[in-house]
Specification:
Blueprint (H helix, E strand, L loop, with lengths): L4 H15 L3 E10 L23 E3 L8 E6 L5 E8 L7 E5 L1 H6 L7 E9 L4
Parallel strand pairs: 1-5, 2-4
Antiparallel strand pairs: 1-6, 2-5, 3-4, 3-6
Length: 124
């Protein structure tokens, strides 16, 4: 006769592990700094010079230098960016990407895209 206890403990362990995930995800709209945009060459919020051809992004709260994976939900394409700026300030947007990152996930033509972002939790 098999006992159900090991199964229940295994299931509880998996649920606990999932709830303690090391990653945070958000879903929402992304936009990007355009090619030849007026921001190219200006200082970002962390003091770097913005380069539209680097894989960087602006987010309102994610700590600077955090690596973020951005997936375009319409086509499944993903890019990796580093947060070096604050924003976006347009309503209902969760992240602003550099031109290079936007191009990689094929959102340049549309200007915006529905995305999922994923990044590691930072522990204080």
């Amino acid at each position: 006769m098999y006992s159900i206890k090991p199964f229940i403990f295994s299931l509880l362990g998996l649920l606990l592990l999932a709830s303690c995930s090391k990653y945070i995800t958000e879903t929402g709209d992304a936009s990007y700094y355009g090619k030849g945009d007026k921001y190219n060459g200006r200082k970002t919020a962390n003091g770097e010079v913005f380069d539209t051809y680097d894989y960087t992004a602006a987010h309102k709260t994610i700590p600077f230098n955090t690596t973020v994976w951005v997936t375009n939900l319409d086509n499944g394409k993903t890019t990796k960016v580093r947060v070096n700026d604050r924003g976006p300030y347009a309503k209902n947007r969760i992240i602003d990407l550099s031109y290079a990152a936007a191009k990689e996930i094929d959102m340049v033509r549309s200007g915006t895209a529905r995305v999922k972002i994923r990044y590691k939790k930072h522990h204080k």
